[in-house]
Design brief:
Blueprint (H helix, E strand, L loop, with lengths): L1 H21 L26 H12 L12 E2 L1 H6 L5 E5 L3 H6 L6 E2 L5 H8 L7 E5 L4 H12 L5 E4 L8 H6 L36 H15 L5 E2 L1 H6 L5 E4 L3 H5 L7 E2 L9 H4 L8 E4 L4 H12 L4 E4 L8 H6 L1 H4 L18
Parallel strand pairs: 1-5, 2-3, 2-4, 4-5, 6-10, 7-8, 7-9, 9-10
Helix pairs in contact: 2-8, 6-12
């Protein structure tokens, strides 16, 4: 009998201990628990009529910035292999540089004259490809983006510019511009996008999408390419002066980016109203990528909508070149090296 009582008492204590352990050994309070208030969602912001009209028109034309053709780049090797085909090469360099050596058959056209050249000097769609070349691929990428957005669907920029064509030209442009001066200034982790705002006011005087595009297109070529670029030194000296967009893969961004930079997803930003509304309309925008090619295409699109956008020329190559070389195989960086140079023949006038 005593044994039975002991077993019963042991069983009761065991159940009590089990209940305590499941409850954390604490008594539940009878006082009402304070609930966490829900996070307030940002109120939707209506974009202005001009921006809405321009975006709708660009989408009707094929939404180029979200197509597989964006950005429209072509390798120097492909240009060389197709010299005898129905292609037109347009050289955007200064006349003296062009005369000292250019691609066979290339036509020398000033940046500001491109709209007139396409409208009055050639029949663009008679060519299979129209290939823009410059010193490093920065100007030609920006120009190709604007021309593509205007509907010239056969325009390309030659990757790396004439630096990929000839070693001497590479020494003048790309090799003279790569640097590693700010590798120790990079910031890890990530930064949040701002709250949504309206697009910039273009004040073009029309809500017709086609008219808006033509006006903005002509205005950007009149303004010149220098208005659309910024150097790494300028950005690193005063990063707070800019809203900085990293336009690259997430792993590359999180491995180290310019202080304050916010990542915007390639193929998931341009032409998407809610994403673009998180880009401030009241300060200069700096867009950067690995080489300056993609960011030049992006910058052209943003400037069409009135953003004071600038591409960081030469991209990561301009401030973390050694790191790109070191981590090339693991991070798939694109540093400019001698491997990119074809040393193809030049024509001199």
């Amino acid at each position: 009998m005593n044994n039975l009582k002991l077993v019963s008492r042991f069983f009761t204590l065991s159940v009590f201990a089990l209940l305590l352990s499941c409850s954390g050994g604490q008594k539940k309070s009878s006082a009402p628990q304070e609930s966490t208030p829900p996070v307030a969602k940002a109120e939707p912001v209506e974009i202005n009529a001009e921006a809405k009209a321009l975006m709708a028109y660009l989408n009707e034309m094929g939404d180029y910035v979200n197509s597989h053709d964006f950005p429209s780049l072509i390798k120097a090797a492909s240009v060389f292999e197709e010299l005898d085909k129905n292609n037109l090469v347009i050289d955007l360099r200064k006349p003296d540089s062009y005369k000292n050596g250019h691609i066979k058959g290339a036509q020398n056209v000033e940046f500001s004259q491109l709209p007139d050249y396409f409208i009055n000097k050639i029949k663009p769609f008679e060519y299979e490809r129209i290939i823009l070349v410059c010193y490093s691929g920065q100007t030609s990428s920006y120009s190709a983006s604007l021309l593509r957005l205007m509907g010239y669907g056969n325009v390309y920029a030659m990757r790396w510019g004439m630096s990929a064509w000839d070693e001497e030209l590479a020494n003048y442009a790309w090799f003279a511009s790569v640097a590693s001066n700010f590798e120790d200034k990079l910031e890890p982790g990530s930064n949040d996008k701002p709250e949504p705002v309206d697009f910039p006011k273009m004040n073009a005087g029309t809500n017709n999408g086609e008219e808006l595009l033509t006006k903005r297109f002509n205005a950007l070529f009149e303004a010149g390419f220098p208005e659309a670029i910024v150097k790494a030194e300028t950005v690193f000296e005063q990063p707070d002066n800019y809203f900085i967009i990293n336009y690259d893969r997430r792993d590359k961004y999180e491995a180290g980016h310019i202080k304050g930079a916010v990542r915007y997803k390639p193929k998931g930003t341009l032409g998407i109203e809610s994403e673009m509304q998180t880009i401030p309309n009241d300060k200069p925008i700096v867009v950067y990528c690995g080489t300056g090619h993609n960011s030049s295409f992006v910058t052209a699109y943003l400037r069409l909508f009135g953003y004071d956008a600038k591409t960081l020329i030469y991209g990561n190559n301009a401030f973390m070149y050694n790191k790109m070389i070191q981590d090339k195989s693991t991070m798939s960086w694109l540093p400019f090296t001698s491997e990119e140079i074809g040393n193809y023949p030049l024509v001199k006038d």
